[in-house]
Structures are given as C-alpha cells and as structure tokens.
TrEMBL record:
<feature type="region of interest" description="Disordered">
    <location>
        <begin position="1"/>
        <end position="26"/>
    </location>
</feature>
<comment type="similarity">
    <text>Belongs to the short-chain dehydrogenases/reductases (SDR) family.</text>
</comment>
<dbReference type="Pfam" id="PF00106">
    <property type="entry name" value="adh_short"/>
</dbReference>
<dbReference type="InterPro" id="IPR020904">
    <property type="entry name" value="Sc_DH/Rdtase_CS"/>
</dbReference>
<dbReference type="InterPro" id="IPR050259">
    <property type="entry name" value="SDR"/>
</dbReference>
<keyword id="KW-0560">Oxidoreductase</keyword>
<dbReference type="GO" id="GO:0003858">
    <property type="term" value="F:3-hydroxybutyrate dehydrogenase activity"/>
</dbReference>
<dbReference type="InterPro" id="IPR036291">
    <property type="entry name" value="NAD(P)-bd_dom_sf"/>
</dbReference>
<dbReference type="InterPro" id="IPR002347">
    <property type="entry name" value="SDR_fam"/>
</dbReference>
<protein>
    <submittedName>
        <fullName>3-hydroxybutyrate dehydrogenase</fullName>
        <ecNumber>1.1.1.30</ecNumber>
    </submittedName>
</protein>
<dbReference type="InterPro" id="IPR011294">
    <property type="entry name" value="3-OHbutyrate_DH"/>
</dbReference>
Amino acid sequence: MPEARPDARDDDPESRETSVTTDDARATDSVDLTGRTALVTGAASGIGAAIALALSRAGATVHAVDRDEAGLTDLASRAAVTPVVADLADLDALADLPTDVDILVNNAGIQHVSPIEEFPLDRFDFILDLMLVSPFRLIRQSLPHMYGRGWGRIVNISSVHGLRASPFKSAYVTAKHGLEGLSKVVALEGAPHGVTSTCINPAYVRTPLVEKQIADQARTHGIPESEVVEKVMLSPVAVKRLVEPAEVAALALFLCGPASASVSGTSFVMDGGWTAH
C-alpha cells in the first residue's frame, strides 16, 4: 500500500517473504501431498507465501490467493503455484474462487492499532469481514468437495491474540477469537467426513504485517520506534525473538500430512511462552 497508515495486511506488496531456506525445505520433505489441491489466502508475502511454498514443494497443487499481483508473480517464479488475484474482503467475489480444494489455509489478515473510542467503525467492520466472515465463506464453499472425497484439511492462521488480548487491537483480537470458535465448530462437523480443522497461534512473526505496526505502536504507546520490538512485541514472551514465517509453514505442513489425522479442533501455540504466564 503506497500510503502510510496504521494498518497492514499480510498480503501487502511492499515487503515480500523470501524463499524458505534449504534446511527448512529438508525439514518438511517427509510430507507427500501429491494429488492434493490447496488454496492459501494472503499468499503473496509473509506466512502465506511460506506456506504456499511448503505445500507446493510437498507436491500439492496450490492456488495462491492475494490482491497483490506483483507479489504473486514473484511467488510463482519460485514455486509451482497458480496465482489468483482477488480481494478477500470482497465477500461476493469469494464465490469465484476455486472450491475443489482438499486443503484450505485461511491466512490473510490486517491490523489496525487504535484505542476503542477512536477506532474507525468502517475499519472494524472491514477487519471482521476479511479475517472472520471471509474464512467462514471459504470454508462453507470448500466443505462439500472435502466431504465428497472423505478427506480435508483446514488450517486457520490465528494468533496468540486468538487466546490473549492486547490493548488497542479490538478488531484483530475479536476476529481471531471468532476464528478460534469457528475452527472448533468445523472440527466437530467435519470429523465424520475425514476433515480436520486447526488453528496455528504464533506470537509476532517477521512479516510485513508486523513491520508496519512499529510506527503506530510507537505512537500509541508513546515510545521511540527503536524500542517497539523489545518493549511491546517481545515483552510478553520468554523466547526473545520474532517467529520466522518458515517455522509457521513447517507446522502447517505437518497439519496437512498423514500424522495429523486425529489432530483437530485444537490450537497450536507458537508464542515463545507468552501464554505460559
């Protein structure tokens, strides 16, 4: 997004994720998804790009969905993915996306940092549409195919904020808490049909979404930008580092593999000890 503003999307074109390392690729070589089709949202950068790369390298046919055409083109130059340019906040347009998918990864997200009394009403609605209503609609239109095949994997990229709250992030926390509940309902309904549904809950990940929060976090908390990572982002965690996108991708790949057949309705926390307090 060309203008500076206090929100950022995981599908932002201004900073795209580089390819995962050779070691990361080797760590996921044991999962074979040949013959499976996946749809990954917010796939042009950050977590979404890392997951799309991992699924493709495991043999899956991957539809990489994002509004950032340039980012998708870059991703497609590094992996065998099919770019699908779409704005996931356009709810009516979701019906045009592929529905014959075995794996659905709901990842696209946006952040806005503001006190509740100043939080723009349209921004709150937009965030819930993008991060909760859109995943529901994508799940709803993908389940018939999964049920028909007797196999499916739904991986929802939630957040530690799906389990804990932070000030100034009312819309994001609300959406992620809602996604957690939705994932559990899907797990219960999908179990008789061989469909699992899980959440991944990382703390702050080194993505454009996080990088674009720094200036606004500094303003909101009244501290210099240079202190945001240490004093805000890493303050509640025991492991004092940002999570890397490839780490999230490795867990997502496991959740799509054969060892996860009985793993459903739960959340996998990658929070560096945040929720241990």
